[in-house]
């Protein structure tokens, strides 16, 4: 039985209980993070905790734990759920807590803090060999997508639309400019250059996204943050979607049309190799 953390206690997942008046349940009034743990080592913990700070500030909610306390909780959750020494996906969520239902923030409230670990499944070989299909979709979400809010209904609706179209992801756009995927960041390779949309309120500043940019820069690859029009997306030699759990996936078909030659491209293969090398260093304790 998986062990979770809830409001200061470590307990079996089936024993964890949250009030039905919790504002996370009633209003989706909360934020979350997802942190991979490779070989028991958390990926980019400081960056994830900084993004958590930013998200909490964005919804005007105090952080219930300091960095040291978060580190202790997360390390303990990894330890208690690492029986087979497999890779884990750590999910943490902070809500405004239980209070009388009212749209206005309650004057006094105790945040609800929840952390769980899920075994991380490897990306299927078929997706690595053949890539995935994606659709394009108008970005129907709210304007503060840089906040990692638990209010994910628009994202789930767009992922469902993608699934019903036989695709694995929806690539979103506003005013003809690519923002991100429904549950991922987006990269393209265009005329030999790796490009990802620049950070703003329309997209989540992905930790995996930033790591890929760092790896590219460290290895002298031509990479930049810039606007990506829908025309550039459709003309791209390669398209990738990235996330903490899926890492880097090649999109080989978009809206039923082949991307490039319809197969995972060489730049993606090179970047995936470099990303795996980074993970190996993390497991050995020589990277963060």
- Indicate the overall shape: globular
Mean pLDDT: 96
Radius of gyration equals 19 Å
Fraction of residues in H or I helices: 25-40%
* Poorly predicted ranges: none
Secondary structure layout:
Layout: E1 3-6, E2 9-12, H1 23-27, E3 30-38, E4 41-42, H2 45-58, H3 67-80, E5 88-95, E6 112-119, H4 125-130, E7 132-138, H5 153-164, E8 169-174, E9 177-181, E10 185-190, E11 193-196, H6 207-218, E12 223-225, H7 230-235, E13 238-243, E14 247-254, E15 257-258, H8 266-283
Parallel strand pairs: 7-8, 7-14, 11-12
Antiparallel strand pairs: 1-2, 1-6, 3-4, 3-5, 5-6, 8-9, 10-11, 10-13, 13-14, 14-15
Explain this structure.
It is a single chain. This protein has 288 residues and is α+β, with helices and mostly antiparallel strands. It contains eight helices and 15 strands. The chain is globular, with a radius of gyration of 19 Å.
What would you say about this model in short?
The chain has 288 residues and is of the alpha+beta class. 30% of the residues lie in helices and 28% in strands. Strand 13 and strand 14 (247-254) form a beta hairpin.
Features:
288 residues, alpha+beta, D-amino Acid Aminotransferase, Chain A, domain 1, D-amino Acid Aminotransferase, Chain A, domain 2, 2 domains, 9-stranded mixed sheet, 15 strands
